[in-house]
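Action item from last week, closing it out:
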Amino acid sequence: MKNLQVKDLNFSYDKEPVLKDLSISIPEGEITVFIGGNGCGKSTLLRTIARLLQPETGKVLLDGENISRLKTKEVAKKMSILPQGPTAPEGLTVEQLVKQGRYPHQSWLKQWSTEDENMVRQALAATNMEDWAHQAVDMLSGGQRQRAWIAMSLAQGTETLLLDEPTTYLDMAHQVEVLDLLYELNETEGRTIVMVLHDMNMACRYAHNLVAIKDQTVYAQGRPADIMTVDTVNHVFELNCHITSDPLHGTPMVIPFGKRGASLYFEVHESL
């Protein structure tokens, strides 16, 4: 099933095209990762899907309905977004942050409820943040902060999570920690996860579905094993590489090389 579809999307910044006639379908219950070079429009696409940006033409469909015609609270109950490098007010605790995820469910007639409290507790448990519930967000490590923000998104109770470069500025250990958490949420709860990643190997390892963006539109979309090829890397990233199999996961592993690496690569292959 497809709960998110993008059709003929066009978007520009100061009359400079960023997305052009772009169409994709996001498989429900899977992890989809947008990849591409800097400035290719990955984050713009994600923000447009989240309705943070208004396209010039084209549309985003959420469960078959044009997202631009839906009420904000209605969208927020189905889809949450974690932007790149979110910041919390100084002194705000993890629990207070996670509670903000329940705001779309509040109204004058429906105030804080037992259901809201349970959703917050479940989100803290799912992200292993219970022990830090009363800790200030700005006092946490990078990985813990990301888990706290993800917990807020989980408390929102949406079926779909959008994340813009959730591993940026994190060291390798914390990157794996965050991506493992998202993978587990997909596996155990069936949540649809859409995110932007820079690391091609991490994208191949965790994604069911890759969307490679080049020249303001989709260059290739599909399973990592099908589309992560030397040709794709060369055209999308303008990078020479060798692709082998990840020894642990069996997913494509990209080994990039520059001019020196290219000469060594061809020397080895000519000798075989």
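Closing note: The radius of gyration is 20 Å.
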